[in-house]
Design a protein that fits this description.
By secondary structure, the chain is α/β, with parallel strands linked by helices. The chain has one domain: Rossmann fold. The chain has four helices and nine strands. Strands 4-3-2-5-6-7 form a six-stranded mixed β-sheet, sandwiched between helices. A three-stranded antiparallel β-sheet has the order 1-9-8. Helix 3 links the parallel strand 5 and strand 6. Helix 1 packs across helix 2. The longest helix is centred in the last third of the chain and has 22 residues. The N and C termini lie far apart (36 Å). Bound molecules: guanosine-5'-monophosphate (5GP) and magnesium ion (MG). The site of magnesium ion (MG) has 6 residues, from strand 5.
């Protein structure tokens, strides 16, 4: 595991972002819509630093499948948590802006629910990967095009609990693959 962003750097980057957000909304109430699961840790830290009247809603989006580290088809689930955003200023919070397809598909769907405005904040922004004509309004860190884990971000549902952001190395990938294989074997054995 190669550390890319330390805990201290994360704290400083998120502090900076929280101040920018507070300046923009200038005392007006804000509704954060967090995009599960990857944004969970970032979301919890960011929201505690935003000194505004604040509501929290959640939606779910998945674009990575299993052992693939490139985006697969995107599945959005707005119904499950049905965000209440009518007439509200919304800040979409996601872990990483990679191709941009997640926000590009999510924003029009949220717009149909009648918010007063929508802006977006991401912890990480991968350079030179964007496939859509939008950019996030707030970015804490620009990173190179490498697959990263930790601080909420996963590889095969592992490594979300690392308190820093790291680049996934071949040995980490093998460890997570082996872990998943062992679980699959155990559940097959149980089923008989
Ligand atoms: P986009 O739709 O912008 O291509 O991708 C956004 C989603 O893809 C992120 O919310 C995240 O779930 C996933 N993703 C993109 N790059 C990475 C990465 O380097 N590591 C991990 N763990 N997930 C990523
Ligand atoms: Mg995501």
């Amino acid at each position: 595991m190669k550390t890319l962003i330390t805990e201290e750097q994360l704290r400083q980057g998120i502090d900076r972002m929280a101040q920018e957000i507070r300046r923009h909304y200038d005392g007006r109430p804000l509704t954060i819509v967090g995009v599960l699961i990857g944004s969970l840790v970032f979301l919890a830290d960011l929201m505690r630093r935003i000194d505004l009247p604040l509501r929290l809603e959640l939606v779910q989006a998945r674009s990575y499948r299993g052992a693939d580290t490139r985006p697969g088809p995107l599945a959005l689930n707005l119904d499950l948590l049905s965000p209440d955003v009518r007439g509200r200023d919304v800040l979409l919070v996601d872990d990483i802006f990679d191709t941009g397809n997640t926000l590009w598909e999510l924003i029009p769907q949220l717009n149909e629910l009648g918010p007063a405005s929508i802006r977006s904040a991401v912890l990480l922004h991968k350079e030179n990967r964007c496939e859509v004509p939008i950019k996030p309004d707030y970015v804490a860190f620009n990173i190179p095009d490498e697959f990263v884990v930790g601080y909420g971000l996963d590889y095969r549902d592992m490594y979300r609990n690392l308190p820093f952001v790291a680049v996934l190395e071949a040995s980490d990938r093998e460890a997570a693959d082996a872990e998943t294989d062992i679980e699959n074997m155990a559940s097959k054995a149980e089923q008989g």
